[in-house]
Fold Small ribosomal subunit protein uS17.
Amino acid sequence: MPKRVLTGLIVSDKGDKTVVVNVERKVKHPLYGKIIRRSKKYHAHDEANEFKAGETVRIEEIAPMSKLKTWKVLDRVNTHATPERVDVDA
């Protein structure tokens, strides 16, 4: 069975080798049809304590490491990439 990979925002890095990642998804309300946001927090393993709060990361499902930790951080998602420069001659 393939491992799930989710993308979310780190909301806490207080624990040793652990970060808390908030994953947000959009779903359609079953009766009213409005698009609403649902979020869930996942505890993820960060072996080197290299990720900080506020970063966007990808997490992967793993075998349980503790009571709450069943995910590990794969890598950063570069959301603040500098756009390529486009010169427009006026």
Notes: The chain has no helices and five strands. The longest strand covers residues 18-28. The mean pLDDT is 92.
